[in-house]
Write a structure and sequence with these properties.
230 residues; Ribulose 1,5 Bisphosphate Carboxylase/Oxygenase; alpha/beta; 2 domains; Rossmann fold
């Protein structure tokens, strides 16, 4: 399906694609050309100067976006019985140990993220063939193996996103929805970029962020001036 852009924006699109733009001007343009009848996502692609074939240069972490990314996240939490009330109060959707294991194994529930305390990982580990291929296995680098149950659940519900580079050294992420205010999207973007910069591999010299593209669902990618963020 091809998106039909307003004819009045054709020349502007040609101009904006020929230069590197500020985040704000890119967002304003994406909103201007949007013709979808749903609340489209705002996505960012960040091209890094890393060698993804080298394990020590791969980026895998998380960021808490102050305004969230517009997604409702369903959490399955493996928590020992005596701490179950903490997960319940914090808003986890499914909570348990062996009983939660059975539900996942029998595909009785749907969820987006799995978190676990260190004491329950011996149970979660048995779900490797189910969770592993989907990238849902709890991971220390993602903060999903945790002793801080309430903080972890609250962060995820508020807008914590998980990211890692692909084989081409590119990180893709949704940083909001098109109905977000411009300053909300910009703050989300700046927090996301700062988190990626914190995880810069020590052996990378010179330019770390090579290119940044911003897009909406079914829109062209708009290049952002990455010199503003290196």
């Amino acid at each position: 399906m091809k998106t039909k852009f307003k004819k009045t924006n054709t020349n502007t699109l040609k101009k904006i694609k020929k230069k590197k733009n500020s985040f704000l001007s890119s967002i304003q343009f994406l909103k201007k050309i949007n013709t979808t009848n749903f609340n489209t996502s705002i996505d960012v692609s960040i091209h890094l100067n890393i060698d993804s074939k080298k394990t020590e240069q791969n980026i895998k972490s998380y960021a808490v976006l102050p305004y969230g990314n517009g997604k409702k996240t369903t959490i399955a939490a493996f928590i020992e019985q005596e701490k179950k009330h903490i997960a319940e109060k914090s808003g986890a959707d499914y909570i348990g140990t062996e009983d939660l294991f059975d539900k996942i194994q029998k595909k009785k529930i749907k969820f987006d993220i799995v978190i676990a305390t260190p004491k329950t990982m011996h149970i979660v580990g048995k779900l490797g063939t189910i969770l592993g291929p989907k990238g849902l296995m709890p991971n220390i680098k993602f903060g999903t193996i945790t002793k801080n149950i309430a903080e972890t659940i609250n962060n995820i519900k508020k807008g914590q996103i998980f990211y890692k580079n692909d084989k081409n050294g590119i990180i893709h992420a949704q940083i909001g929805k098109i109905n977000f205010k411009n300053d909300e999207l910009q703050k989300n973007f700046e927090i996301f970029i700062s988190e990626i910069k914190k995880n810069k591999p020590s052996k990378i010299k010179g330019l770390y962020i090579k290119k940044i593209y911003l897009s909406a669902t079914m829109s062209p990618g708009i290049e952002i001036d990455c010199t503003l963020y290196n």
